[in-house]
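can u do me a favor
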């Protein structure tokens, strides 16, 4: 179902169930139009959360959560900006968040926590990343992927990467001292060091355009499965809730630690398939940059945060483990589809030129 009143940015979004359908209707209206209807929506979301079979892959609720977070990001949903702080929509978001966080904490196994010292935390994070047994999506792209599968990877990653770094930047005002300085150092690189053309999200957008893909944010929301939305939603949840600032720091640490080598494989895979520098630049850029970032994220960011706030140690490792687990779940979806000879998207795209 399309909603043209949203404007170009979200004109292709389609609902995936009753709650996301109701939310589309709400956001197409004025906040003063039907306040009782928004309250009813919040109660309906609460009931939907209680009866969801698996909120992590619940298409309807993950899309609704993605849309609700989009109100704060901008560039996702074109609607009355007063909806961002509407109490009933905040209540609906909190209902989904609470169940989503509970599901993650129930499923994700934490390692033995180290002492809250910079050196011990960094060593434990590197060990956690090294022991990760998730599927190697990057090796598949490097060695086996078809052109269509490689392009599907870019589409799947566009949900996060066209807003790369924004999810982690929510933590900047929630940190102080050494950890804040370390996060700003990393993010400054992500945002191009003052050069707009070097912003990583923009480099990725160039990759998409070179592949004849639409680089408008959200253009492919209708094609990606719930687990892809859940990956983005998890980062948003960690970043936008101050009490979870330890989790977003741990997530960034694990994210950076598992980026450099995979991006080398991704770049090599696209070269194997005949694509040029206009496509591979994004991946090549991250080989060197993230090799530096992983050290800063582990030692100066996560390590100093644990030293200064030992009570956040558990959440730092929860965020790191959640990053690895979610990447594994998403990787399993993609590889499972491709190895079965089907598309990883909800609808296959036309073959690349």
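np, heres the sequence
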């Amino acid at each position: 179902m399309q909603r043209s009143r949203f404007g170009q940015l979200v004109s292709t979004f389609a609902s995936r169930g009753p709650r996301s359908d109701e939310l589309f209707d709400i956001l197409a209206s004025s906040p003063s139009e039907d306040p009782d209807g928004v309250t009813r929506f919040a109660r309906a979301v609460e009931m939907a959360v209680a009866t969801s079979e698996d909120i992590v892959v619940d298409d309807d609720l993950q899309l609704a959560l993605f849309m609700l977070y989009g109100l704060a990001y901008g560039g996702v949903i074109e609607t009355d900006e007063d909806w961002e702080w509407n109490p009933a929509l905040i209540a609906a978001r909190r209902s989904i968040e609470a169940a989503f966080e509970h599901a993650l904490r129930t499923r994700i196994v934490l390692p033995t926590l180290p002492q809250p010292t910079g050196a011990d935390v960094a060593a434990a994070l590197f060990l956690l990343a090294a022991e990760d047994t998730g599927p190697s999506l990057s090796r598949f792209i490097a060695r086996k992927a078809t052109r269509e599968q490689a392009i599907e990877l870019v589409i799947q990653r566009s949900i996060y990467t066209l807003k790369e770094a924004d999810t982690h930047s929510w933590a900047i005002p929630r940190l102080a001292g050494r950890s804040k300085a370390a996060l700003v150092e990393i993010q400054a690189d992500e945002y191009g060091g003052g050069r707009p053309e070097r912003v990583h999200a923009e480099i990725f957008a160039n990759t998409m355009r070179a592949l004849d893909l639409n680089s408008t944010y959200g253009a492919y929301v209708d094609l990606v499965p719930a687990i892809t939305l859940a990956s983005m939603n998890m980062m948003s949840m960690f970043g936008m809730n101050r009490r979870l600032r330890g989790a977003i720091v741990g997530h960034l640490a694990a994210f950076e630690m598992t980026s450099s080598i995979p991006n080398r494989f991704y770049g090599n895979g696209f070269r194997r398939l005949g694509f040029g520098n206009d496509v591979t630049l994004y991946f090549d850029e991250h080989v060197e940059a993230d090799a530096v970032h992983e050290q800063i994220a582990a030692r100066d960011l996560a390590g100093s945060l644990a030293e200064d706030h030992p009570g956040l140690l558990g959440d730092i490792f929860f965020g790191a483990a959640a990053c690895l687990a979610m990447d594994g779940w998403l990787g399993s979806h993609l590889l499972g589809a491709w190895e079965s000879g089907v598309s990883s998207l909800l609808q296959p795209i036309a073959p690349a030129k």
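The chain has two domains: 4-107, 118-339. hope that helps!!
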